[in-house]
Amino acid sequence: MSRKQVILGAYLGGVNHHTAWWHPEAGSQIAFSSFEHTARTAERGFFDFFFLAEGLALRERAGEVFDQDIIGRPDTFTVLASLAAVTEHLGLAGTINATFNEPYELARKFASLDHLSGGRAAWNVVTSFDAFTGGNFRRGGFLDPADRYVRAEETLNAVRALWDSWGVDDVVADKESGRFLARGNAGEFAISGAQFDIHGRFTVPRSPQGRPVVLQAGVSPQGRDFAAANADAIFSPFGKLPEAADFYRDVKARAVKAGRSADDIKILPSASFVLGDSAADAAEKHRAILHEQVTGQTALILLEQIYNRDLSAYDPDGPVPDIEPDPEAPPIIQGRAFIHQDRFATVKRLREVSEAKKLSLREVVIDQFERGPLVGTPAQVAEQIDTFVQHNGSDGFILGSHLVPTGLDEFVDKVVPLLQDRGVVRTEYTGTTLRDNLGLAAAPAPVRV
């Protein structure tokens, strides 16, 4: 039986506490040289794609900007288009919100990126409903939480309709004029639904992938259904077996139920890594990094998002607070994605872990908030990745480092060659598009109605 190939994505740390901005080797979070170095390193390691997260508003605590966050994130499309000029094979994936952007703009920008990059564009579809983020946009916080996936699905369907409004043979060459001409109905579209009533002609001919790759992150049952029915890849929040394997089976089953093949969707958790000369050396480095990342103040703020209470009076080196969350109060933390489905169950688990392991507030945050880091010697990390993928915990990993922009270099130099020796990472790019490299089926041909 052949071994699964490991998909590798690279992300550049941004607006969160994981980025070691204080490190003497740390570079700028917004300089093009940082993005370029990370992307070139990923391509040197034969990664599948480079990924950018998105922050649409500066995060706040009790009305004030976090003073431990990294401030600043340039426009995603500008960065990815620039990287298209300095890479040849690497996919370029951007997180763009489906709530605050219009289908025509989204379709045109991603189709343009796909043309500029020769078929390497990917869209990570995210949603938002909170008034805090919406305050930066014309629509404000209008969207009811129950409707966010309704809008996301209509947005994605509309974008795909625009991509498909150009047929594969709608551009023809006129020999006399030397110009390229469009056939009569090329680009025509008319879309009407609960969210949109738009019509016109799309300006960008069909791109190399036909449809750029679609990524999505969904943990709730509704989010999983949306991703399973629509995404080419989904970001998994689970970095440890067996819960990761349970998520893998669940999403693949939902894809089949939606009329797709299980192979039509790839499962990709994010992970950090720490390498050492020995297992003990790597573990010590990892412990030191975690304690630098999660200061006492950071630990309190991470818990405040769960409790939705001001915890500043609590000692980070003391016990977990004995109060209960207050989900009905106005949010004390604004601009940070909330990933905990049940506040009360999460607090109960944190207390149980703290008591069982004799951990302080800060220590339990460090223990529980990290998602399956890869720690060990290069050989051990290669083994961890290969074992995880072959046991269907995922189809690969999206890797990032606490050190920007040079952190990925060590992984590419020391771990990738070992994965290549195992036969699970390519030694050269053979596909011409991101779809090819991810092992995804070609986009369906446009259907004229």
From TrEMBL:
What are the entry keywords?
A: Flavoprotein, FMN, Monooxygenase, Oxidoreductase
GO MF annotations, alphabetized: monooxygenase activity; oxidoreductase activity, acting on paired donors, with incorporation or reduction of molecular oxygen
Do the record's keywords include Oxidoreductase?
yes
Q: Which residues bind FMN?
A: 95, 149, 220
* Residue ranges constituting the Luciferase-like domain according to the UniProt record: 26-390
Residues annotated as signal peptide: none
Source organism's superkingdom?
Bacteria
> Does the record carry Flavoprotein as a key word?
yes
Q: List the Pfam families.
A: Bac_luciferase
Q: Which Gene3D superfamilies match?
A: Luciferase-like domain (3.20.20.30)
PANTHER family from the UniProt entry: ALKANESULFONATE MONOOXYGENASE-RELATED (PTHR30011), C2H2 FINGER DOMAIN TRANSCRIPTION FACTOR (EUROFUNG)-RELATED (PTHR30011:SF16)
The family line of this record is: Belongs to the NtaA/SnaA/DszA monooxygenase family.
The name under which this protein is listed is Nitrilotriacetate monooxygenase component A
Q: Organism, per UniProt?
A: Nocardia camponoti
Give the taxonomic lineage as stored in the record. Answer: Bacteria, Bacillati, Actinomycetota, Actinomycetes, Mycobacteriales
